[in-house]
Amino acid sequence: MEKMKVGDLMVPVDSFPKISVNAGFYDALQALENAHNEYVSGESGERILLVENENGKIIGKLSPMDLLRGLETNYTRADSEKVLTSYGYANIWKSFQEDYNLWETPFRDLCRKATQVHLKSFLKGPSEGQTVGMHDPLAKCFHRFVMNRHDALFVVEGDQIVGLLKFSDVYKEVLKTMKECGI
After folding, report:
1. Packing angle between helix 64-71 and helix 25-41, nearest 10 degrees?
2. Range of 123's domain?
């Protein structure tokens, strides 16, 4: 495995379904559901939904967690990832929730408000710890998967996202190697 590079296991962006960053919340919900259903039925090999800008450039991916974040629009007021990782989740959740009035609006009201929400208002691109280069060793990816708990890493060449390295694919290779070693 030491000789394997990210490019050996990555899936190119052309293999994934895509959605525009300008799509509305409910279009995104439907597209995510369609991607999942096509994956489960075997019509598609991928269920991750990539997000592209007006020029067709991949700028991120959409997950069910992103949709949940998009429902509660007050998350856009805070850089929650930075705050939570800096100070520790358990220590600040209560004050964070109170300061930003998170989840105080009834859930059904949030769903009704979502008709006016678009992906571009809440979708975040890849963080620094979520990108790797095509020629990077898998050891770098192991560290990023373990420390950041991402399900996939964006593979970049220059400023372009060219593919995804899915944890599930890396894990298959890890299992294969461990079995070969007699573990």
Report:
1. 160
2. 6-180
Give the position of tokens 């890849």: 126
The residue type found at 124 is K
Rounded distance between C-alpha atoms, residue 71 and residue 114, angstroms: 6
The CATH number of residue 55's host domain is: 3.10.580.10
Task: Please tell me the distance from the alpha carbon of residue 175 to that of residue 152, in angstroms, as a whole number.
Answer: 17
Residues with Cβ within 8 Å of residue 180, at least 6 apart in sequence:
none
pLDDT score of 106: 82
Domain membership of residue 1 (yes or no) is no
User: What is the biggest distance separating any 2 CA atoms in the chain, rounded to whole angstroms?
Assistant: 55
pLDDT tens-place string over residues 9-44: 999 999 999 999 999 999 999 999 999 999 999 999
CA pair distance 91, 23, nearest whole angstrom: 36
Q: Of residues 61 and 128, which shows the higher confidence score?
A: 61
